Amino acid sequence: MRLLKFLLRYFPPGIALEYTQGGDVKTKMIDLLDLSAKTDVKALAESIRVSEPMITESVMDQLVETLEKLQNKVCDSGAKRYYKYKTLQTHLLPLTNIAFDKLGKRCLTGSYDRTCKVWDIDSGTELLTLEGHKNVVYAVSFNNPTSDKIVTGSFDKTAKVWCSQTGHCLVSMWGHDAEVVVARFSPTQSKIATGSMDATAKIFHLGSGQELGTLKGHTAEVIALHYNNDGNQIITGSFDGTISIWDTRTFQRSSVLIGHREEISNCLYNFDCTLVGSSSMDKTAKVWDTRTDKCLITIHGHDDEVLDLNFDNNGKKLATVSSDTTARVWDVSTNFKQLAIMEGHREEVSKVCFSPNGHHLLTSSLDRTARLWSLESGCCIQTLGGHTDDVFSCAFSYAGDTVITASKDNTCMIWR
Amino acid sequence: MGLLSILRKLRSNPDKELRLLLLGLDNAGKTTILKSLASEDVTQVTPTQGFNIKSVQSEGFKLNVWDIGGARKIRPYWRNYFENTDVLIYVVDSADIKRLEETGQELSELLLEDKLRAVPLLVYANKQDLGQAVTAAEIAEGLGLHNIKDRDWQIQSCIATEGKGVKEGLEWACKSIKKK
User: Fold this and answer.
1) Is B80 labeled as ligand-binding?
2) Where are the WD repeats (chain A) (predicted)?
3) A258/A89 Cα distance (integer angstroms)
4) What pLDDT sits at residue B15?
5) pTM metric for this prediction
6) Interface of A with B in 177-216 (CB under 8 A)
7) Of the residues A203, A347, B4, B126, which has the maximum number of CB atoms within 10 A of its CB?
8) Contacts of A282 (CB under 8 A, 6+ apart)
């Protein structure tokens, strides 16, 4: 084994060792989730050397330099001020969900006008209109990190896969009996998973569009779905109040996380898939251990329905937003204490995400604004105003330099 | 209303929760009727570029009323909203005599839609306060309502800006559902 070079991964922080073994080039990922401004980089380099025989004394200077670069980027907590950069204004009807590609150069918007559009962020121009669905396009996603394909899920009960360069529809996936409201690429295999209002999830072959299996068990609409990192497991959240964990090879349900008393509004994995977070109309959020399927904590505090939640990139903090107009951030690595409460929105908060480095929070609300918050102080740093109707979605690009917001007013705004 | 609440309102709802679809040409007064039903201020209404949803209680039912923009270019998208409709409400501007034929054409197309088959129809003859307004009976005649045999229907004259006649129409809607 011979080390070739170090590769950086900013969010969440980590380095990859690229090396040759028997003529093949391979990489090994080392997660550095605890890297902070206080980290002694030399000591960290030393500890990596001890556990990695590939790292010899001769590359230590280079390793330290790499780690310093990573530390500077990741721990820069300075608040960037965003300006309205472009308003994308050609959908005829309200927007639904939005998504970035890996590099933050393009974004997708789904709409009630039955199309999905692909936008060039730099120029604010429309690159492609994906036409073919016969009803609202609700779910949109790139197959990041390659971003050469797009999946859309529609109220017309189908999902479609498109070439992100040409806009050609590559394959349509049929079989659901009701609206498709979530569609995801498998992270490792050429498969697509969809969740539907028909209370099932399905797995399709990406190339042929053939249905490989149906995940049956929920007794109400499936509205959230995520793959774990190796693609062998899926979680689904349902309006029946439960979260199911499925084995994607057998299509069998391996466990059901029961405890919420009302509909699930969202559920997702943390970075290393050791935890599942779930939010519910029962005014609580829960954190579950995926190894034991036990609920580790029920988060009380919100006075109304919890509408969305998100983990930070390191998987150590959880943000929840609610109809009670607040956002809250919780420590999920140690004691589950509330770290911050963000008050300022005048109406319910519908979506939440962390900035890539985890220092800021982005929320969207029915009060027609999106807001940026400091995690440290809980204060609103900036109000992204300008939409003339409810803001439905918001997202950060991977590098955190761009924010997009999508609204019921039929426009999408790019902020830089 | 966030995307999630749209999904919640999309559900084929259990008993006592109904889905009413409010359609009609642009400027017929759909949004004003919606706001009047919800007892909201009706002085500031702008053309609907998409849709509005409000929940109203009536006769022991929870009514989720979907108000869809009526501009010509967005009418082809009305069918996005047909699924699970319990009552179709069609709003006509009684003073816009020039477009009576156009509104009749749109309505007859709606009545042919498979997803709206046998769905009770309530027609609001709105803007009865305007001088040139024709009566509800004349609107019914113009729309050919008497030829409808495949569903319950009712015409209700109203003045949405003053809230007159709006509640009465809704009461009929609830009764027609109870009959089913």
Assistant:
1) no
2) 88-129, 130-172, 173-214, 215-256, 257-298, 299-334, 342-383, 384-416
3) 43
4) 67
5) 0.92
6) 179, 181, 197
7) B126
8) A241, A260, A261, A262, A305
